[in-house]
Amino acid sequence: MSFLPNLPLASIDAIRPVFMIVMGVFLMIVAWRMAKESKGWAVRLMVGGAFLLCFGYAILIPMYEAGMIERFHPVAHLHDPATAMGWHAVKLVVMNAGWLVFGLGLGLHSGLVRMPAAFKFSRTQTISANESVA
Amino acid sequence: MNLLLEVIIANGLLFDAFGVIGLGLLALAALRLVREKKSWGGSMMAYGAVALLIARIYVLLAPHVVDNDFLIAVGPIGISLMMALPPILLTFGLAGVVWGLWGHEKWLKEKY
Question: In this structure, is residue A58 part of a structural domain?
Answer without folding.
Answer: yes
